[in-house]
């Protein structure tokens, strides 16, 4: 998978904001016809980004004065940076868009949001037309970012595609494989208390990002999720069996309240199953790992 443009044309410029694990996977999919820069607030990452094929740009979304170089540079932006840690608004996206608006705006922005914007859906299965119902400021910040991006797209004639992303996993992703939780012996809910979760392999998400930059509809929201629909406990049971590890202990919700952190409990309070037909139809993405069964053992 790669972008292509006529050889006579100037190489289009892509800015990756938040070039962590997914951004680095995206870089591996791009060919040399793209001129890529990656915004980083960490000077120590310069060599890593150069080796991956990107020009490092030092800047901090929490410090607007450091973002002046972004103005007018990019033809397309892949926005993978998370919001700041508190408050109902995404001030980082606000700062990014202010910087991009100072000169010629990019023609396209792809933003990685979260499926958490829907809140608890009681296990319902639904598509992108469902209204958002955030239960946490973490989700409200993402909704704020989506709204700012839509406004920017309308105001500056910029195509905006939003990918709502669930739990990301991969064997080579730090903190992104179920074996780590299994080895820690952390419990899961018993079946009668359990919740549905959604997943996407990191490589499939990177491929979705590239396709969205190439042909993403605008203004449009897409569920960047795989085909698996599993209760969380069943997911970890499957992972344990595939990894040759003991299945996690099952506990009730009352015990979970005593043993788990507020952050862990927040994920146990939301249950939903997301339809991904729009992702496959409009981006024409063929999932490499359509079910976690394939992805866990990859």
From TrEMBL:
Span of the signal peptide: none
Matches recorded under CDD domains: SDR_a4
Keywords from the UniProt entry: Oxidoreductase
Listed EC numbers: 1.1.1.290
A Pfam family of this chain: Epimerase
Gene3D superfamilies in UniProt: NAD(P)-binding Rossmann-like Domain (3.40.50.720)
A Gene Ontology molecular function term of the record: 4-phosphoerythronate dehydrogenase activity
InterPro entries to which the protein is assigned, alphabetical: Epimerase_deHydtase (IPR001509), NAD(P)-bd_dom_sf (IPR036291), NAD(P)-dependent_oxidoreduct (IPR051783)
Occurrences of domain NAD-dependent epimerase/dehydratase (ranges): 17-221
PANTHER family, per the entry: NAD(P)-BINDING DOMAIN-CONTAINING PROTEIN-RELATED, PROTEIN YEEZ
Protein name in UniProt: SDR family oxidoreductase
